[in-house]
Specification:
The chain is built from seven helices and no strands. The chain has helices at about 1-20, 35-40, 65-75, 80-85, 90-95, 105-125, 130.
Length: about 130
């Protein structure tokens, strides 16, 4: 009976350890686990995502925290369309092969950045903005 209890306890410890490696709570000074996508795809070479606690290696491009709304303001394109048909410097980045996003990656980026944008609007409580989303 003691052997089964030890094995069960060991399995629980292993499972908790594995889950802990996959999920890290977002607290000030720590990266949100969603930041991993931006690091692995090379976005953080130039872009910060402050909303996820992610700093850029080189501060040469806009912070992506509010990109969901910013792209529409700057380029008149939704973020989804911008990722499919980039303009400006991003056309060179995507077209030159520096960054390649699969359809799943693009959908994930849009989902994450839409969430950050909505969180920011909710914190600011801007009248009329919540209805637009």
């Amino acid at each position: 009976m003691k052997l089964n209890t030890r094995m069960s306890l060991g399995a629980v410890v292993l499972a908790v350890t594995a889950l802990g490696a996959m999920w890290v709570p977002a607290v000030e000074g720590q990266q949100d686990p969603r930041a991993r996508l931006f690091v692995e795809r090379g976005c953080s070479e130039c872009h910060a995502v402050a909303g996820l606690g992610l700093k850029a290696k080189a501060d040469v491009a806009p912070d992506l925290t509010y990109a969901y709304g910013d792209v529409l303001y700057r380029y008149g394109l939704t973020l989804e369309r911008f990722l499919d048909e980039p303009v400006g410097a991003m056309r060179l980045v995507f077209g030159g092969g520096h960054v390649r996003l699969s359809r799943v990656d693009s959908d994930s980026v849009v989902h994450i950045l839409r969430g950050l944008y909505r969180q920011g609007l909710a914190k600011r409580e801007l009248p009329g903005c919540k209805e637009a989303l």
